[in-house]
Every structure is written in C-alpha cells, then in structure tokens.
C-alpha cells in the first residue's frame, strides 16, 4: 500500500501533484534541483491552501495536516529513500527523464513504483533505464492538478498488473478517475489536444479568426471548457512545441508543429509563465 510519495520537479505539475497528494493524506516529499524552485513551490502550495481555506473548499485542520505531511528538498536521494511511489514531473525531454529514472532506480526502495508524469513519451523507453520495468508506469496528470479529475494510466511493455492496480488506487484516493491506456505516442488526450490546438494556431496564422473568437467558438459551439489557444498558453508554448515535435517524429506529418507556434517560442512568447503567448497576461496571470 502506498503511504509515502516523492514528487520530482517543483514546476507547475510537480507542485500541483504534491499539493493534491498531501491533501489526500499521503506523506509527500517534493524535490527540485533548484533551491529557488523548491522555495517557489513551497510558497505556491501554502498560498493555494490558504486560498482554498478562505473559499471553504478546504478545512483549516486539513490544511495544517497536509502542510505537516509536506517536505521540500533539493536532494534526490533524501526525497526518495523512503518512498512507496515516486512521481517524476520533469521537463518533457527524454534524456532528462531517463537520467532521473536511472537515479531513482538506484536510490528508491526495491518495492517502490516509479511513475513518469508525461503527456506523450514512452514509459517503456524510460523504464528500460531501470532494473524494475515492471514497477514503472506513466501517470499523466492534468493542469491544474487539484481541479482536473482525470489521470491517464499508461502501461509500458513490462508494466505489471500490480503496478497498474496500485497507481489506480492512489489516483482514487486523490479523488481522481482513471483511464487505462496501452502505450502509443501521445496516449489518448494529448493526441487529440495537440491536433486541435495546432489547427487553431494554423487558423490564427491564416487569419481565419482572432484568437478570442477561435477560443470562443470552441467553448460555446463545441462545449470545450477552455479554448485551445488559452489552453496552450496555460500549458506553456515551449512544452506544447516539445510535445508536437515528439508526435511529429513518431506519428508523422499531421503533427507537424504550426509555424506560428515555432515563431512564438523563438520570440520567448511562452504563454502565461512569460506574460505573453496568444494572449497578454498581467502580474496576476490574468488576461
């Protein structure tokens, strides 16, 4: 049974996973190689707890218990040495993930499950860097983690039934629903999301409609909760470009990144995190 979770990476996804796991009663250690990033993650999580207590979504007792269950560190070995489950939430770069998994295999207990929070990449290839491929799996969380109800559970070639069952149980305790996916580039949601978002970018580039009207059309006409260009800004245009390039390499021409996406990333327009993407954002990340 999973009681202790280590989250590797203090960025948007890592801190969201750590918040949700701690609120769900798990003992959580969040690790980032940057002390500044670890401190920013700590501040973000504390502020999110405070906001949700003020709004009545979380009881003050739950906040105190969850914060007491959270540890922040820059030391990978310290973070994972007692973990039952490790969730890696690093950049979508295969070389980085493989390097992390080699270290996790060395430092984590023999029984620990090693999960990658990837939206497109092969858990089989990542697991091959370890001596425990049966205990490796992909858990694809969605942003913002504390609100989104789905986790895609992706089997690698050697992922065991016991590993899948364990991460489904963890997901359920976090209040999430799961879909089980057999590994294929992009899984289910990312293949669809990237196609829709890429087409929206091409339409904007072609002058079909404004960013606002493209997003409005999909929200009101197709009942999407968020427009594809808004979503790309939220995810980060650099992250979206990495995903598109990976899918293009593996699935072919229909996933060729929009020239507009490439141009925006070259210009440093990365979405909300840079203050400008398809929209402009103020200091409070509001359009």
From TrEMBL:
The record marks 140 as: Important for catalytic activity. Transmembrane segments: none annotated. Residues 4-183 form the 3-hydroxyacyl-CoA dehydrogenase NAD binding domain. NAD(+) binds at residues 9-14, 32, 92, 97, 119, 143, 273. One of its GO terms (molecular function) is NAD+ binding. The keyword Glycoprotein does not apply. Residues 186-281 form the 3-hydroxyacyl-CoA dehydrogenase C-terminal domain. It holds the Pfam family 3HCDH_N. Gene3D superfamilies: N-(1-d-carboxylethyl)-l-norvaline Dehydrogenase, domain 2, NAD(P)-binding Rossmann-like Domain. GO terms for biological process: fatty acid beta-oxidation. It comes from the Bacteria. Pathway: Lipid metabolism; butanoate metabolism. Coiled coil: none annotated. Its EC number is 1.1.1.157. Keywords: NAD, Oxidoreductase. Belongs to the 3-hydroxyacyl-CoA dehydrogenase family. This is 3-hydroxybutyryl-CoA dehydrogenase.
